[in-house]
Amino acid sequence: MHGQRSKKKANNSMASTARPKNVCLTMHQPWASLLVAGIKRVEGRSWPTEHRGILWVHAAAKEPNPAEVRAVEDQYRSIYAADGISDKLCLPTSYPTSCLLGCVDIVGCLPPAEFQAAEDMPLGPKLESQSEFVFLCQDPRQLVLPFSLSGQHKLWKLDKPTREAAEAGLGAIVHGVSPAVFRSC
Question: pTM here?
């Protein structure tokens, strides 16, 4: 019986650490850069995910429209102004496309009603998304040098050499002006 407990304990331990490290999401700019810069703290989608752990962020090929970039930057300035910290917001200076930018950790995915009703959820992230499902993102890390890469639709997997190169090129965790720390769900 003791042998069975040890084996079961070892399997549970492995299961809790065996999260995939190669899952990627292609996003349009400027949202992709804002996410890995720690400014955007949640990502809205029309579909849910069970994925938890590292999520690589890829910038789509579509060049962002300058007017749209200004509108999104203004939106984030007002979100942070609601928390009284807009003067400290440091927006990206460029929005590259067709490249891998970095990663975040996904700690949960909530439907909007549950997301908006969460009492322990900061106000800022609640203002960021009204989508059908909200991915809770934290611990953003940027690649020191983003590298060219074609993307795919929805969640997709980086091949092992690309993931290893990306891991080697990551900078430190970005601590934005108001980082979100979400309860895992």
Answer: 0.85
The residue with tokens 């065996």 is 18
Alpha carbons within 13 A on the beta-carbon side of 107:
13
Q: Which residues contact 22 (CB under 8 A, 6 or more apart)?
A: 56, 157, 158, 159, 160, 163
Looking at residue 8, what is its pLDDT?
38
- Do 20 and 105 touch, CB atoms closer than 8 A? no
The 8-class DSSP code of residue 52 comes to -
CB 167 within 8 A of CB 123: no
Q: What is the pLDDT of residue 142?
A: 95
Q: 20-173 falls under which CATH superfamily?
A: Hypothetical protein. (2.30.130.30)
Identify the three-state secondary structure at position 109.
strand
pLDDT at residue 120, rounded to an integer: 77
How many angstroms separate the CA atoms of 138 and 181, rounded?
A: 6
